[in-house]
Specification:
The structure is a single chain. By secondary structure, this protein is an alpha+beta fold. It has two domains: about 10-145, Creatinase/prolidase N-terminal domain (Creatine Amidinohydrolase, Chain A, domain 1, 3-Layer(aba) Sandwich); about 150-380, Creatine Amidinohydrolase. It has nine helices and 18 strands. The chain has helices spanning about 10-30, 40-45, 100-105, 120-130, 140-145, 150-170, 185-195, 260-280, 290-300; strands spanning about 35, 60-65, 70-75, 85-90, 110-115, 135, 200-210, 230-240, 245-250, 250-255, 315, 320-325, 340, 345-350, 350-355, 360-365, 365-370, 380. It has a six-stranded mixed β-sheet. The longest helix is centred in the middle third of the chain and has 22 residues, at about 150-170. The protein binds zinc ion (2 copies). One zinc ion binds near residues 236, 252 and 343.
């Protein structure tokens, strides 16, 4: 864990209590009477506990005017690192109806916000029991708050990015053989290396070679990588520094298995300039869409505007994609603590493509790139 010498590790309990206070303030502003959190990142953000994506109901009931209660299957209650200062526990037995328990805890409160990733069957069951309630997504309360990372979260994101950087360096340094292996084999090795560098989960390891490098979300397959080919590698996972679910890494580096031709060198130089410019533009007070615009103008001026077919970036935290999104139409201004990817790409369909991605945090003293692995086009001839 990369802590600055002389600083104490962030106290997860204190950080979660401070987040809960911010959530309660936001609920008061919005007139939300109770927040109901099930699957998704809001629950671990506030409690450190991630609900299993199973049919049995797990739901934190957080009323605006009372302490929170976690309704959890009795057989999963052992997994909860319970902090009684943050929430009470209500384990439910197999013969109980957990929706009845939630409805009792909600009582006569009417304005409710529920995780958008709760099962529809949970919401429908609650709507049948709480007939006078009005419903909105929990993200209305939590998303803008979760997007702004506290110190504990930035520390966790930095540790995850540093670990991903180490794998990127292994890739660019030729330690991961490419030529003669399938994309799927390389993907598996990148995943294993993410784990070896401390990740507790691999979210994805995209390996797109040759013409597949022009497909941004390519699924690594049986294609065998040849000499003189572009290979786009985009990988990340979750790394836990405190026993919680962990924060995400996400990095893309493009390598070439042999000397690059002039067209690739030129395209990559434009991409590099676009990415670096967008990172520099990600200062506090800049609009998200403006950061996207900086990268897009560089690529468009070089004649490849139509080949940059996705937004410039996405927020990152407990989830690999969350607010804020760096995309035209998002006028949200960056504040200190916003964490997001900056990842322009240029894709020449049927031929080849390239992408370059770092995770960046906006700070009062300027953008901090959490990924520092070399940004050049690496020539890997193994
Ligand atoms: Zn990525
Ligand atoms: Zn990304």
């Amino acid at each position: 864990m990369a802590l600055i010498e002389g600083t104490a590790p962030p106290d997860p309990g204190k950080a979660r209590a401070a987040r809960t206070d911010r959530v309660r303030s936001r609920m008061a502003e919005l007139g939300v009477d109770a927040l109901l959190l099930s699957h998704g990142a809001d629950l671990p953000w506030l409690t450190g506990y991630e609900a299993m994506p199973l049919e049995r109901l797990t739901m934190l009931v957080l009323p605006a005017d009372q302490d929170a209660t976690l309704v959890v299957p009795a057989l999963e209650a052992f997994r909860v690192d319970h902090d009684p200062g943050l929430f009470a526990m209500r384990p439910w037995a197999e013969t109980e109806d957990p929706l009845d328990l939630v409805a009792q805890l909600v009582g006569s409160r009417r304005s409710l916000a529920i995780s958008e990733r709760s099962w529809a069957v949970s919401l429908l069951g609650l709507q049948g029991r709480l007939c006078n309630a009005s419903w909105q997504p929990a993200s209305v309360v939590t998303s803008g708050l979760r997007a702004v990372k506290d110190n504990a979260e930035v520390t966790a994101l930095r540790a995850a990015s540093r670990a991903a950087d180490r794998v990127a360096r292994q890739l660019m340094g030729g330690e991961i053989p490419l030529i003669g292996r399938s994309e799927a084999q390389v993907s598996e090795e990148i995943g294993a290396r993410l784990r070896a560098e401390g990740h507790n989960r691999v979210n994805f390891a995209i390996v797109g070679s040759g013409p597949n490098s022009a497909s941004p979300h390519h699924e690594p397959g049986f294609r065998v990588i040849g000499a003189g080919e572009v290979v786009v590698c985009d990988f990340g996972g979750r790394l836990s520094t405190d026993g919680g679910p962990g924060y995400c890494s996400d990095i893309t580096r493009t390598v070439v298995t042999g000397p690059p031709d002039a067209e690739l060198v030129e395209l990559y130089a434009v991409l590099h300039e676009a990415q670096a410019g967008a990172v520099r533009a990600a200062t506090v007070g800049s609009a998200c869409e403006e950061v996207d615009g900086v990268a897009r103008r560089v690529i468009t001026a070089a004649g490849w505007g139509d080949a940059f077919i996705h937004r410039t970036g996405h927020g990152i935290g407990l989830e690999e994609h969350e607010d804020p999104y760096l995309v035209a139409g998002n006028a949200t201004q960056l504040v200190a603590g916003h964490a997001f990817s900056v990842e322009p790409g240029i894709y020449l369909q049927g031929r080849f493509g390239a992408r370059l991605e770092d995770i960046v945090v906006a700070t009062e003293t300027g953008p901090e790139a959490l990924n520092v692995a070399d940004h050049g086009l690496a020539v890997v001839e193994a």
